[in-house]
Design brief:
The chain is an alpha/beta fold. It folds into 3 domains: 1-31; 33-63, no CATH class; 68-295, 3-Layer(aba) Sandwich (Aminopeptidase). Helix content is 33%, strand content 19%. The strands form 2 sheets. It has an 8-stranded mixed sheet with strand order 1-2-4-3-7-10-8-9, with helices on both faces. A two-stranded antiparallel ribbon has the order 5-6. Strand 5 and strand 6 form a beta hairpin. Helix 6 runs antiparallel to helix 8. The termini are far apart.
Length: 296
């Protein structure tokens, strides 16, 4: 055996012996070090200076679109906010509107506000393809004014005579002449509804007034659409209100619901039986039936 071969053999024996020693002293386990396994921090990061989990996977992964939100869609003549409450994130939007005539029919605002609480507590009620928006008080200045004069806004205009359907500067309320404003949509409250509706895909609207205990379909310059009549019948049957195709007790110019019909939106007027009670059971049943119909 040459000297070179002897040296190679000795080196091999040394390597084999060293490996056997390590196995005998560790039981076959491989020792870990601090750099092999960094501690998990309480915030979900790994070690000092690590990014939070949401940053590691793109930054927005833990964010979700809220079911409920609210926006101020406009201001009244006196600067009071007109607030809309939104529930759900679907592309089809249903509107619930109260308080057009302020303190003259305060129960319409109270009913719509009750729907804000109800929808907030019943997330599963809104179908995935729907969004329900509640505007409890279109006329906050009138609601704050109190009494019969609160039917009108701070410019003494009947907001439900200020929309662009058969608009006229003077209209009627029973046997009394009322102002429809200087032009269609001259009032900021009507502008707020117009501007909001123009931004959404409204598939139906329920607007509460008082007081008769009936439901009316909507039309502008013609007969009500089939969709409006169907919505009125659906709501009325579930709520056990009478249903009429047209309000004809006296002429109305510039009506909100009729303007919506002009815009191609199936809309109905629901007149509560009086000006005090919200008739919750009736309207909750009508709403649920209408929501199911509009979501299909």
């Amino acid at each position: 055996m040459t000297t070179k071969n002897i040296i190679i053999a000795l080196l091999a024996l040394l390597l084999i012996g060293g490996g056997a020693y390590l196995l005998l002293n560790t039981g076959g386990d491989v020792e870990t070090t601090e750099t092999d396994m960094m501690p998990v921090e309480p915030d979900g990061g790994i070690g000092d200076g690590a990014q939070p989990l949401d940053e590691l996977i793109g930054g927005d992964a833990v964010d979700t679109v809220p079911f409920a939100s609210q926006t101020v869609i406009g201001l009244s003549v006196d600067g009071r906010p007109i607030t809309a409450y939104h529930f759900g994130n679907g592309s089809r939007e249903m509107l619930l509107i109260g308080g057009t005539h302020g303190s003259y029919s305060p129960n319409t605002s109270a009913l719509a506000q009750e729907f804000v609480s109800y929808l907030g507590d019943n997330e599963s009620l809104v179908p995935i393809n729907m969004r329900v928006t509640v505007i409890p008080t279109v006329n906050p200045d009138g609601l704050a004014a109190g009494g019969t004069t609160g039917r009108f806004n701070a410019n003494n205009v009947d907001i439900n005579r200020n929309f662009d359907c058969d608009w006229a500067p003077t209209s009627m309320w029973r046997d009394q002449e009322v102002s429809g404003g200087n032009a269609a949509f001259s009032e900021p409250e009507a502008q707020a509804i117009r501007d909001y509706v123009s931004e959404i895909n409204a598939v139906g609207a329920i607007v509460w007034f008082a007081a008769e205990g009936k439901v009316y379909a909507s039309a502008c310059g013609g007969n009500p659409s089939n969709a409006s009549v169907q919505l009125a019948n659906t709501f009325g049957a579930a709520a056990k209100y009478g249903v009429e195709a047209e309000f004809d007790a006296y002429p109305i110019n510039g009506d909100m619901v009729n303007w919506m019909a002009k815009e191609g939106i199936p809309a109905i007027s629901v007149l509560l039986t009086d000006r005090q009670g919200i008739e919750w059971d009736k309207n909750e049943a009508g709403f649920r039936a209408a929501l199911e119909a509009l979501s299909n």
